[in-house]
Amino acid sequence: MHRIGVVGAGYVGLTTAACLAHLGHDVVCADVDDAKVGRLRRNEVDLVEPGLAELLEQHDIEFTTVFPRDVDFLFVCVPTPAGERGEADLTAVHDVVAQVPENTVLVLKSTVPVGTARGIAHQQTVSNPEFLREGHAVEDFLRPQRVVVGSADLDAARRVAALYGDVPVVLTDNTTAELIKYACNSFLAVKLSFVNTLAELCERVGADIDGVTEGMRLDERIGAAFLQPGPGWGGSCLPKDTRALLSTAREQDVEFATLRAAVDTNDHQVRRIAEKIEGDRIGLLGLTFKAGTNDLRDSPALAIARLLDGDIRAYDPAISQEVDGITVVGTPEELADGRDVLVVLTEWPEFAELDWPALAGRMATPVLVDTRGVVPADKVREAGFRLVSVGRPD
Ligand code: UGA
Questions:
Q1: 104 and 220, same structural domain?
Q2: What local confidence, expressed as pLDDT, does residue 79 receive?
Q3: Would the CB of 226 count as within 6 Å of ligand 1?
Q4: What whole-number distance in Å separates Cα of residue 25 and Cα of residue 45?
Q5: For residue 119, which of 27, 53, 219, 371 sits 20 to 30 Å off, Cα-Cα?
Q6: For residue 81, what pLDDT is reported?
Q7: Residue of 22, 41, 21, 25 lying closest to 33 (CA atoms)
Q8: Which pLDDT score is estimated for 328?
Q9: How far is the CA of 79 from the centre of ligand 1 (A)?
């Protein structure tokens, strides 16, 4: 087993550190944020990520603000935020690269623009993009569908792949590995935008999107996942990575029309959903960009809220404090009090099992907009709601 350094204790870095420790490696995890390191030393984790806190508790990981030098492998898990034109800010990555000791394998896990590794002089640089879904990060790390390792130094790449145990491996060069990451997230975005437009068409022609996607899912060439229409796709990855790939394509004079359309469609989806929400007193069920996380970054719920006029409140099982000037209440019942409309924006499973008659009774006008297709339509209508859906005629 090896001594491994992880730089960055965000959701990717912490998951990487915890899972590598779980696989038997000796792990030191560094972050520049003193307060965060202090909390991690006390076993306090501020991320909602199933299984992560347990692994951190179970394994002895050293948390530090000091750059880890005495390691065989150094995983770079620092943020690469998008600038205004979609270009990634690589300051944090370059800071790490500047400090990596000569005989340490540098593992680039942060999502970096295509061609970044090629510009790094360090000999043993391995591009090893992450494919961790928030809410499933631990299982995605420990039981990956594939591990991608790209390097000019194939021996270093093989050694990085071996750290994960017996897993399917794609062994390639740095630039291809970097592009795989963007290709995956961008393809998922295209798929979702396709379905969201299909849902709009269903509403017009009187078809049912669930039936349409059921018919699509059974075709293995299309695949069963990522066919659920919603308020638009968000989060810290899909919006950023689609913009970055478009930016790379533009630099190379490549017209990536399908991806451009997917991004435009997503903006349209947010506006289209906002137009479905009528009333002055609005209650939002869900604020996070998807269920199973407390992450609000690039959440479509917040983008939609910004387009609404009126008094907005929200309930979200993972959020307890005011967000963007939106008052957050403690229960769905409290949310319903005196509201003109409730809007399901995140697919939290508990939203399928609310006490509909009780909620309807508390509202000024019982209207429910379900952007995620999670509520039981019959029960909701029986309780007296007017139900507005995405992908089904009202
Ligand atoms: C995404 C990818 O799925 C991961 O493979 C990748 O590693 C990660 O980005 C990353 O780059 O780090 P994540 O951002 O956690 O993971 O979120 P997803 O589960 O992909 O969901 C993205 C958005 O699509 C969410 O807003 C979600 O609600 C929406 N979505 C997803 C739908 O509207 N419908 C679906 O059927 C699926």
A1: no
A2: 92
A3: yes
A4: 21
A5: 27
A6: 85
A7: 41
A8: 98
A9: 18
In this structure, the answer to whether residues 254 and 378 fall within a common structural domain is yes
Q: Is 192 a domain residue?
A: no
> How many residues does this entry show for the chain?
394
Q: Does residue 12 belong to any structural domain of this protein?
A: yes
Residue-level pLDDT at 47: 85
Domain check: are 164 and 217 in the same one? no
Q: Could you tell me if residue 199 is inside a domain?
A: no
β-strands 26-30, 3-7 pairing: parallel
- Burial of 60 per CB tally in 10 Å (0-12, 13-18, 19+): exposed
Q: Which residue has the tokens 């984790």?
A: 45
Print the domain residue range for 138. 3-172
237 assigned to active site: yes
Whether residue 232 sits in one domain with residue 333: yes
State how far the Cα of 157 lies from the Cα of 187, in Å rounded to an integer.
25
ipTM entry: 0.97
Residues in the chain with pLDDT values less than 50: none
What's the confidence (pLDDT) of residue 86? 67
CATH of the domain at 330: 3.40.50.720
For atom 34 of ligand 1, the residue with the nearest CA is 228
Last residue of a domain, one of 148, 172, 196: 172
Q: Is the dihedral of CA 94, 100, 102, 105 positive or negative?
A: negative
Give the residue whose CA is nearest to atom 10 of ligand 1.
237
What pTM was estimated for this model as a whole?
0.94
